[in-house]
Amino acid sequence: MSKIWEFFENLGEYVYVADAETHELIYMNKKTLKSYGFQSLEEIIGLKCYEILQGNSLPCGMCNNEQLKPGFFKEWEYYNPLLRRELHIKDTLVEDDGRKYRMEIAIDCGNLNGRGHKSEDYRNMEAALNEAIRVAQRQESMD
After folding, report:
1. Phi and psi (nearest 5°) for 57?
2. Phi and psi for 31 in degrees, rounded to 5?
3. Following DSSP, what letter does each residue of 21-49 receive, concatenated?
4. Which pLDDT score, from 0 to 100, does residue 142 have?
5. Is residue 32 a contact partner of residue 14, using CB atoms and an 8 Å limit?
6. At 122, is the secondary structure helix, strand, or coil?
7. What are the residues facing 106 on neighbouring strands?
8. Among 16, 78, 79, 9, which residue's Cα sits nearest to residue 48?
9. 50 φ, ψ to 5°?
10. Residue 75: which of 101, 49, 116, 106 has the closest Cα?
11. What is the pLDDT confidence band of residue 3, given thresholds at 50, 70 and 90?
């Protein structure tokens, strides 16, 4: 094992490593490769993490690279629309050969029992409530 992240090759969670400055992917474990439709590391080397993992053309607005420190984990929750999964994410910074790498481990929390994303649920509820208020305001009587 030449790199520390190779230890996670057979972990049943999503793991990826990207250059913290260039956002270029340098590693995905088997589960992550398969989930994103890749067969080998050679296919992802040099691709931008935000393009592959999020389908974005620019770095993600929620990117927390500036907050990461070696030896410490930043934990957060995120719904990945490409995977359609709610994830508990653990990010850290790894230094190797003078370079800084973002290493992310994402624990699959499921798809919320088929209900979709929490924010989507809230938007749907808000839309229904707004419609109910519009209907109520058009009535002659509050009763």
Report:
1. -95, -10
2. -60, -45
3. TT-BEEEE-HHHHHHTT-S-GGGTTT-BH
4. 56
5. yes
6. helix
7. 14, 89
8. 16
9. -65, -30
10. 106
11. confident
CA 107 to chain centre: 10
CA distance linking residue 71 with residue 4, whole number of Å: 13
pTM as predicted: 0.76
Pairwise CA distance, residues 127 & 122, whole Å = 9
Listed in sequence order, the residues at least 6 apart from 111 whose beta carbon sits closer than 8 Å to its beta carbon are 84, 85, 86
Q: Is 98 helix (H, G, I), strand (E, B) or coil?
A: coil
The residue to which tokens 């509820």 are assigned? 125
In order of their start, the domains of the chain are 4-112 (3.30.450.20)
Q: Which residue has the tokens 């972990």?
A: 11
The pLDDT tens digits of the residues spanning 22-31 come to 999 999 999 9
